[in-house]
Batch of 2 targets.
Target 1
Amino acid sequence: MTFLSGHRAVLRRFLGQKQFALRLAQGHVGSSTRDEEVTEAARSRFCIDDAEVLELADYAILIEQHYSAQAGHPVPMDIEWAKDAIDGNLHIVEARPETVASRRSTGVFESYVLTGDASVLVSGKAVGEKIGRGLVRLISGPDDLKNFRPGEVLVATSTSPDWEPVMKTAGAIVTDHGGRTCHAAIVARELGVPAVAGTEAATATPRTGQCVTVSCAGGEVSCVYEGEVPFEVTRLPASALELPRTEIMVNLGNPDLAFRAAMMPNAGVGLARMEFIISEHIGVHPMALVHPARLTGEERARIAVLARNDASPREFFVRTLAEGVGTIAAAFWPKPVIVRLSDFKTNEYAQLLGGGVFEPKEANPMLGFRGAARYAHPAYADGFALECEALLRVREAMGLTNLRIMVPFCRRVAEAELVIAAMARFGLQRGKNGLVIYVMCEIPNNVIQADAFAAVFDDFSIGSTDARGRSRF
């Protein structure tokens, strides 16, 4: 929707491993092909740039609109494309109605959960969200396919189209090479078979005849476990859900689970924690990206590797955070998504790359330099500017104005006013384009001075913690 309204931004990107490239053996049309190992420099680059991604998105929308208009109803399309090696132009090479995902029943919620644990043999990119189990069958070539038995776990370096009759009977598929768009992933996704792509070592680890459990229920990364790990499958018809009159919102911090969570009955996201994205997808202290001179040479080198595909380390932080938050906001659009500003404690911030030099050592970080106290303080103001820039990008560049903001651990009204003023300077002005800003009501003064805080913020998010540390909202 935001694309059609004129917003042009890439929501999210993944850098594939690209270990091998299929090249013409003699360098011209008509020659045989060969596998060529991809250089490390080429692996670290994206295959296409943002402008080309947006060009393909435009093509896809136009194609779907055309066929939908012809049919008189929405027609989801399966589109294949190629980039010409000579002139660099993008070409659509095939478009046909998509017949798997679009016909999948959305009236039943199916959830897979591991209920046991075991040793992890290999891990890779998750394809699907299911869990499969069976005996391993290593396939090194077409001749091995005749030995494959239905329900076995197919393990191979990669797969090819002529393997599809066997792949349809597999309990799971595991490959050394490839990503979410490789042949094995495409077929597994269409068939609803759990698959693990790009493990790098699958064919060298499990043995033929060995029992394994393949789990894609943990988000982006899936694992192959040794033995029969118990798991549960829950199937719940939407018609069986009796929803309360109260609008129920979900808590979510992992962008990898956003679209799955959005399929459940909900009124949006009541709390999206920014800390997960910073710790798991960025891993660097925000101040370290603004003041690299205070870091060691080793720390600067590690940051340079992380930011190698960005214009600067600062842009790496802003882009990655914006894409993580934007993924959640897009998944639930147009329902409200309330994102809480970073609420690490000083000891947690110090564990991020480059964080040790910027954080004080506190006897009780739970009550120390955290939450709203950091945002306008000189010790973190430059880092807060990066957070605000990322959220502004989500709302304005991506057009996801359903994003709302929550300020945590705000002790004093004067502190609240400083934070609101700082956010406005960075473009996040309360009320602009419908921006709503909440405060988290979690300390006594938020209640004692509720009227004064209510004059600064749009609303409260009320939270409390019991003796076992479980948040209740």
Target 2
Amino acid sequence: MKKNIFLTPFQKFIKTESFAGALLFGATLIALLWANSSYADIYHRIWQTELGFKIGNFSLYKPLILWINDGLMAIFFFVIGLELKRELLVGEINSLKKAAFPVVAALGGIIVPILFYLSLNSRPETLSGWGIPMATDIAFALAILSLLGNKVPLSLKVFLTAFAIIDDLAAVSVIALFYTDNLNVILLAGGLVLILLLALFYRYKKYHPLPGIITGIIVWFLFLKAGIHPTIAGVLLAFTIPIKRRMNIVDFSYQMNEIADKLVEETNQSCGLLTNEERKRLEQMKNLMREVESPLQSLEQKLHTVVAYFILPLFAFSNAGVKLSMEAHYDYNLIKNIAISLFAGKFLGVLIFSYLGLKLKLTVLPETMNFKHIIGISALAGVGFTMSIFIANLAFKGEPFLIDSSKIGIIIGSFLAGLSGYLILNFAGKQKV
């Protein structure tokens, strides 16, 4: 069998996401415990603390929780954009044949939960929450899969990752199209022009992160003031990052050996410190390393760790603190609708569409997977924590009563989905091939 050259990086990705899922769970649990303790007021005051800056007549102040949701989460969406670009060009969805199975599954996991929510909802004030149950949380889902060890094949993890990325693309599109209000077309157009100019700059000039950082900050601000959620800027900016290397491996190897030979000739063994010549040669090696790396791949790997280990746990910690009490007043219909749409809607959507795709011969089941795996992964798809909470904040902006009710529904639905998915896959075992 031909060896998959991207296997090791993907396995590293899975390990990162799995540990990130554990951190998300821990952050969520701590937030819930804190919000339901006698120190709950301190928890809520921290996230409502106003932070910002003033330059002359210009000022920008926002509560800490909005700096996290609008600012740090833009970096999360930037990484999603990098992942989408990589997958579309060289990854698991870069051709119709590869993409067919996860795309069909993802469509079911998007359409059916929305239909569930719309059919269950009976009140206009909660209608805008229809986008909440449509996205799978890849970190939580992979963390649950990792608990099963070798009982599930690697191809199942690849499948889950591919259709979760398609889910994310759909969620980003929904946020941009349906959760944007008071749109300022001039500011939006200005931001889009800057993104286009950055793409042209990186197309014809050597990649350097500084132009991207400066442009990114300006575009983020323009999108914020334009009325479109600034995290969308993160996705669009990611597509400007070049994926091609500026130097091939053969030229890199030749030049690196040449520098290494000169370094050996010029080295001064008696000196404990590096000489100027040695430092010069090492700097040349570093420059060559940068030339042979894909800017997109390098940036994705660097930021992925920051997002997985810091930004997402912080998002969960700041957003998951909901008071759980029988005495508290919640919108129980909304809680029920979201929980059912996530748990049952996602399960039936992914399962039915996957089955139809196979029966109609639109897709092919990977060799190391069986249909029991699809049943389990369909259940697991209902774990929709991060993106679901993010959309809930947008859908019910300014209505904490509905936002808190949504979060409870998301937690219940995700818990049921995660537990059932784990149990099904645990009993399914690993197919022998």
